Structure formats: structure tokens, C-alpha cells
Amino acid sequence: MPAVPALPGRIRTRRGVGITVHAVCDYFSFVAVSMLPLLATHLGLTTGQKALLLGLGSVTSGLIQPVVAWLSDRWDSRKLSTMGLMLAVVCVSNIGRAETFWQLLVLHGLGAMGIGAFHPPAAAAVGRMSGPRRSLGMAIFFLAGMIGGIGGNLTAPRYVEWMARVTGTPGSPSYAGGLHALTWLMIPGLLACVLLGWAIHRTPHRHHGARDHHAALPADERRRRWIAVGVLYASNIVRFSVNMALVYLFVEWAEAHTLASEGAASLSNELGAQASRLNGPLQAGMQVGMGGVGLVLGFLLAPRLEKRAFVAFPLFGAGVIALMPFADALPGSLVVPGAISLSVLAGVGFGSVVPITMAAAQRLLPHRTSLASGMMLGGAWAFAFVGPQIAERVQRAAGLDAAFFTIAGVLALAGALCAFLPGRLLADAIDHQ
């Protein structure tokens, strides 16, 4: 369908709505993660089942994104984004009604798939509506997702606890009732679907001469562009694998810290809820680091400096993650703030350059902006399931501290990969609109 002409002011409004709906989408993406300690005690999940749950979410979210991206580029359509968000809203709103691990697995997997389907068309549309400031547009889009994730991590556990008290009796909260109350999230979620359809369905992903421009490039440059996108893709696989590994490890750290501070041998529902309250800020800290510094980089980072950032930030993050085992050595009142601070800095290390990789890939492949976005997000995210699996296995074999050290080493690999990027090509790639 041809694009409908719109005034610049309306384009800005539609872009703002698309960015805002990204925050809503990523709020839903972290509801299950933030509630995992309580869900684990409620359903009796093992560490292996928790790792499998997190891993499946990254697989379904990731694998759907290149498919949706290809179809969106082929049809120049954004409708799959809205359909995906609708699926996510319905499934995530009902995770609290799961009565078995397998029901939870299906709901979480389908919800993550819907969240994944949202991202490539929405990111490409926002990038298109950002004009010549594509990197900044992607950084703001990315930051909105982080804000949504922070909201999900911080408010979902407290909302469930509040509803548990409302649906229970004095002195005896009903945690099942609190989890069931997540269904009410469907109302704002479906409203966001309506707004998203208005915002992006009529927005083209690429400029009209993109295919001709790319075809006119020398064959060697086209090959080098695809290789550069491939290196960015591989480095994002590592970044997202580290992200998911840390999601799992922070859940385990929150549970271990809660048990130690309470002198308990195992988690009850009450202690599971307490661990969820601690887990939420740890998960949110990563989002703060990813989104906050990502926005700064979108404002300030020139294309000629992108390669240096792609190398330096993962190395910084690796050093931060390696400090996490020493958080417990801090004075008692500083242990939790110290751990949260490290989670923020870890997010800076593995995630703050992700929106820059998206913008760079879109510049390198102007005729395939949805595919470029899908590769940098879901195409890489699809392989992030290995992160929790590696972390869980190292934890079982050598303990939680060893798992943090191992994941630090994995993140350093992302920086090493980016040393092979053609820096001049990144700097010279022109952003076509």
C-alpha cells in the first residue's frame, strides 16, 4: 500500500506513538522475568526449568524476527508488528493463571514470540520517521524499551503483592490471586495495539530509491557491507547471550541473597515474593544502563567513532561483571545498592551500543532496513538462549561466582569480534531517507 502523505508534525506524532508503544511492549516482556522467583516457588520450578523458560523466550522472540522482517520488507507492511503485540499482551497477561510448568512455558514462549514480532517493523518505521537523525531515533526507541522494561521489573512484583493482599485475608495474602490479577494488564496492552496500528501502518520503511542505490554500489563494497553487518550480527549474538545469562544469574543471586539474609534453607512463597522485589531492581538496573547510555551515544557518537565504541564497551562490561561475585564482601547496607550499581554498569557494557548497531546496519543496508533491524535484534536474540544454559551449567558445576566470571569472559569476545569491523566503511555509509 503506498504511503499516505503526512505533514512533518504528524510524522513526529506518529513516531512518538511508535516509540511510546515500544515501552508498553517491553513492559510486557519483563513481567515474567521479574516474577520468576515467585512463579518458581508457586509452581515448584527447578533451576533447569527456570533456565529453559528464559532460553525458550529468547528463541521464540528471536527466530520470529527475521521472518517478520523479511515479510515486512517484501510487502512493505507493518501489520505483523501490531499482530505480534496483540499476541504478547494476551499471553503475558495470563501467565499468572498457569497451573503447571508446561502451561507457563507455552504462554511465555508465545508471548515472547509476539514481542519479537513487534520489533523489526516498528524499529524500521521509527528509523524511517527519524529523518537524518536515524541513530538518535534508534537510541530513543531503544531507551523507550528500556523504560518499559524497568517499569515491568519494578512494578509487576509490587502489583502482584498488592493484589495478593487485596484478594487474600488479613495476614494471609493470596499469591495465586495476585498472579491472576495480571490479567487486568490486557486492557492497556490492547489499547497500545490500536495506537500502534494508527502510528506505523502507513509509514514506509525505506526511501524509494534504496534498492537502486544499493545495486549501483561496486560489487566489492556491497560484499563488504554485508560482511560488516555479519560481524555486527555476531557481536550482538554475544551481547544478547550475556544479557540473558545475567537475567538468570541475577535471579539466582537475588534468591541466594534472600536465603542468606533470612537464614532460611529454601524459599517459601513469602520469601519468593521478597526475592522478586530484589530481582526487579537488578533486572531494571541493566535496562537503565543499556537505555540511558544508549541515548547518550545516539546524541554524541559520530559514525567515525562507532568501531571504537563497539570494541571498548564490551571490554568495560566484562570487567564489571567480573566484580559481581565481590558484592557480598561490601558492608551489609551496601551489598544490595552495590549489586544494583554493578547491574547498571553491566547493562552499559553489553547493551548501550545495540541501538547504534541497528542504525549502522540500516545505513549499510538501506534497501533492507527491516531485515537489518531484525538481524541486530531478533536475529541475534534467537541465539541468546545459550546464555542461561551456559550460566546454569557453570553454576551447577562450580558455583554462582564462577558463572559470573565465565559470562564476563564471553562478553569480552564481543569486543574482540568488533575489532574486525571496517571502521572507514561504517563512517562513510550515508543515511538515505
Compose a concise summary of this entry.
By secondary structure, the protein is mainly alpha-helical. It has helices at residues 8-29, 31-34, 36-43, 47-75, 79-92, 101-129, 134-167, 175-180, 186-200, 210-216, 219-262, 269-300, 306-321, 335-351, 354-364, 369-381, 386-398, 400-418, 423-428.
Would you write up a description of this structure?
The chain has helices at 8-29, 31-34, 36-43, 47-75, 79-92, 101-129, 134-167, 175-180, 186-200, 210-216, 219-262, 269-300, 306-321, 335-351, 354-364, 369-381, 386-398, 400-418, 423-428. It is an all-alpha fold. The chain has one domain (8-428): Growth Hormone, Chain: A, CATH 1.20.1250.20. Helix 1 (8-29) packs antiparallel against helix 9, helix 11 runs antiparallel to helix 12 and helix 13 (306-321) packs antiparallel against helix 18 (400-418). The longest helix is centred in the middle third of the chain and has 44 residues, at 219-262. The model is unreliable at 1-7 (pLDDT under 50).
